[in-house]
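Weekly modeling sync, notes
Attendees: S.R. (lead), two postdocs, one rotation student

Agenda item 3: backlog of single-chain predictions. S.R. asked that every request posted to the team notebook include the full sequence so nobody has to chase files. The rotation student volunteered to paste the first one in as an example of the format we agreed on. Action items at the bottom.

Example entry:
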Amino acid sequence: MINNQKLKKYMRNKIYLFLSIIILSVSCSIPKKLVEKNPKINILADSVQRKFDYYFFEGIRLKNDQKFDQALETFRMCLSIDSLDAGIQSETGILYAALGFNNEAVKCFEKAIQFDPGNWWYNVQLISMYADLKNWKRRIEITKELQKY
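Predicted structure, as returned to the notebook:
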């Protein structure tokens, strides 16, 4: 079970996430050169993609309903289908962070950045995790890398 303090931290992070998404959607657009630079290498068959999408959105729903164990299992199903998808790596990292598994969260965010290095949101999530872990050196390195995009 998740204690009350972790749940409050998770909800606060969820509010920050929501506000960030609104701000980003209003103020930013993805530069065309980034889209061309990072095409998704593995393309799934339609039936497999539908299965992945089903589990992905089901996992999001379960996470929003605070059914974290079930959401994690659903995200693991997505990872078994397509472990190269940066989005599922990021969502799994967010869930691990909410549950207090910071090392696992960092691994997921690192993979998300490996698959989509120019994605601002994945980088910010990892920078935030390193701040929580007081790893200032790595946080600065990632920030400098992000400035290249």
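Discussion: group reviewed the output briefly. Residues 130 and 139 are 6 Å apart (CA to CA).
Action items: rotation student to repeat for the remaining queue; S.R. to check formatting next week.
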